[in-house]
Amino acid sequence: MARNIKILFLAAEADPFVKVGGLGDVAGSLPGALRALSPHLDVRLCIPLHRSLNLDGFEVKPFASYAVPRGGHQMPARVFETNYSGTPVYLIDGSPISSAQSVYSSDMSSDGEKYTFFSLAALELLQHVHWQPNIIHANDWHTAPTVYALHQRLSDPHYAWIKSIMEIHNLPYMGGGASPFLNAYGLHPSSNPYLPDWARHFPLPMALAATDAIVAVSPAYARELLTPEFGCGLQDFLRTRANVLCGILNGIDLVSWNPKSDPALSKNYDVDELASRIDNKASLQSTLGLPADPGIPLLAMVTRMDPQKGVDIVVEGLRQMADQSWQAIFLGTGIPYLEEAVRALQEEFPDRVRAEIRYDAHLSRQVYAGTDILLMPSRYEPCGLAQMIAMRYGCVPLGRATGGLNDSIHAYTDTLNGTGFLFDDASAEAFANCLREALLVYNDKERWSKLQRNGMSQDFSWENAAKQYSDLYRQLLNNKDVERFR
Known about the structure:
Elements: E1 5-10, H1 22-37, E2 41-48, E3 61-70, E4 73-84, E5 87-93, H2 95-98, H3 108-125, E6 135-139, H4 140-152, E7 163-168, H5 179-184, H6 203-210, E8 213-216, H7 219-224, H8 235-239, E9 245-247, H9 277-287, E10 298-302, H10 311-320, E11 327-331, H11 336-348, E12 353-356, H12 361-370, E13 373-376, H13 386-392, E14 396-400, H14 403-408, E15 421-423, H15 428-442, H16 445-456, H17 462-477
């Protein structure tokens, strides 16, 4: 008989309550996918009660009140409970959370205090709920103190049998600067001899040294973490933990991301109605004031304006492609100098480029449905979801062969088994050469249609990821090392 497994899933954000980045998609979808996979998986979500939380339509009830020790003081914590599509959700509040203006801040005096408090309040919650998890599944540095504190309490019979998973969504963000708050709450630097000295008081490395299993959000990213290029100075340490490191590719919500039913589109379609994409392309060109031309390749970036995403690579690469026929749309916000670089490209090519410097979820759906090629020349990409969404909508991704892009995009070959295009070097030249190849294929409508159909036929459902996480949980409880880079 299958064993019941109880998992407490910790995250800084979760859709639909609050979403800032890809973590919000994961935390909003994976717990439900796990519960749907098996009645033996009892997954519960725990997030901070941010001021920006959207609780419309949710019944929220007070659940527990207790204190979290901070030095010689007691910090009051309040917990509320609700339910999202069958998944129990705990919302933790307290002055470090309620006083913060945003989910994330560049000011570590805010985030360091808030997330250390939240992490310890989440662990203390287990003393006040008639439900004890077998596994605590933490995500990124914001919940890493829970894992480290759990390790420190192994002598306490209340916690000794709980396993932990530390999931890495973006290794460079380690929580640097949080050390004073960790110390204030009684979490002193790690003594792990393999950690670099500088990393022993950073929340994420501290947890990586203490956890029972480490998960990266794609198999390729798990391999990359062991290299100097992507390991952020932790590669040697992570090699000492390679037996507990694996990668599991994220999924997407196939109900939400469905061109057959998406209300944002001018005309709905599926893999058997690809011709209808022309209507969405025409509508998008009209909306953004681009010359109406169904035959011209329409390129897009839907992204955070950040060097990681390779925005500068696209800007310079398109300049090198000025002799080619194309239009391009940039949608997103971020670092000001990159926003300005995109605006400058629009001024340089006013009939070909649109710089939409804003967050617009509605327009993003129209972009996926109406453009031909999604550009993702990321310098690193732990997983990435945009390429999966693009393929679902018949938009062909072109990305750098790194991380989750390498795992989810099958590079085009003459055998027509591909779903997109990949290039190796993080340079404008390599990007432009790859784009030239893509445009040659675009001009062959039969081959291009095959690429689109291949992409739309991929299964990026959360069910696939949930099955792998379920296997990981069972391995962990059987005291087995995880299967490396599954």
